[in-house]
Amino acid sequence: MSISSISAERFWDNRKPAPSIQVGTNINVISIEKKSETFLEVPFVLTISYNPSIAQLNLKGTASVEGDKPEIEKILKDYDQKKPPTPVILQSISNVVFTESILVSRILGIPPPIPLPVIPEAGKQQSAKPAERDYSA
Fold it and tell me: What is the domain partition of the chain in residue ranges?
């Protein structure tokens, strides 16, 4: 996996308190290119946007995929049929680019693009029953 380009900009004055934000992420696989019978290259772009618009990050790169001939042929066939890339390819790309984007967000002084774990306060009981959710549109 290699990152070829990083573009990041903070729009919010870091001396002001950050407002409540929502983070949108999009990984776009540009193409899947066969390099040999057992090797593919997968160029991608990650875009991270914040709402309200406090910052934006873009990372471009290429993932290298190795596998046996039948696996590579299946990935190419699925790509030609406009099917989404396999989860293992997307997960591998995600693992690297989100790690890099956290480092960039720290440099810019903006919230990281992934939710941080919440540690419950000492002495408070956690409910055994999960909170109900409203799935209506």
Answer: 2-108
- Residue for token pair 């984007």: 101
Q: What's the predicted TM-score (pTM) here?
A: 0.77
CB atoms within 10 A of CB 63: 20
CA distances from 6 to 22, 24, 61, 95, 117 (A): 21, 17, 9, 16, 26
Domain 2-108 classification at class level: alpha beta
φ/ψ of 77, rounded to 5, equals -65, -45
Per-residue pLDDT of the chain (137 residues), as tens digits, is 999 999 999 998 878 887 888 999 999 999 999 999 999 999 999 999 999 999 999 999 999 999 999 999 999 999 999 999 988 899 999 999 999 999 999 999 888 988 666 677 766 555 555 555 444 44
